[in-house]
Amino acid sequence: MGPFIKGCTIQIEFTVDEDITNWEIKAKLYDSSNNSLVLKTTGAGGSDDEIEKTSASKFVLKVPYGTTQKWEDKATLEIKIDTGSDIGGVAEVLPGYKGTIQLEDSDLDWDID
Hints:
The protein has one domain: Immunoglobulin-like (Sandwich), CATH 2.60.40. It is mainly β.
């Protein structure tokens, strides 16, 4: 996924084929140098500034400006979902996604024609 510019605000939209209205979503972004960030939906202790549900089937992860400035070029993104359902008296928590995100350094070219 990506590439994204290190240090810039990163927004990643996910669309699923299910109603996510009652889901609590948590995401962890980390690199090999132990830099990490945890994002959560409002119901999971976070806010719409971290993970925003934009419809019944879409959500957006929002990595704040400056967070990844000193990170490695590759980071791992893991998403876990608490569906709000119980199975056998235990909360149903699913692995939603795990993948790599490319991060790039970028020098701004002010001489763009």
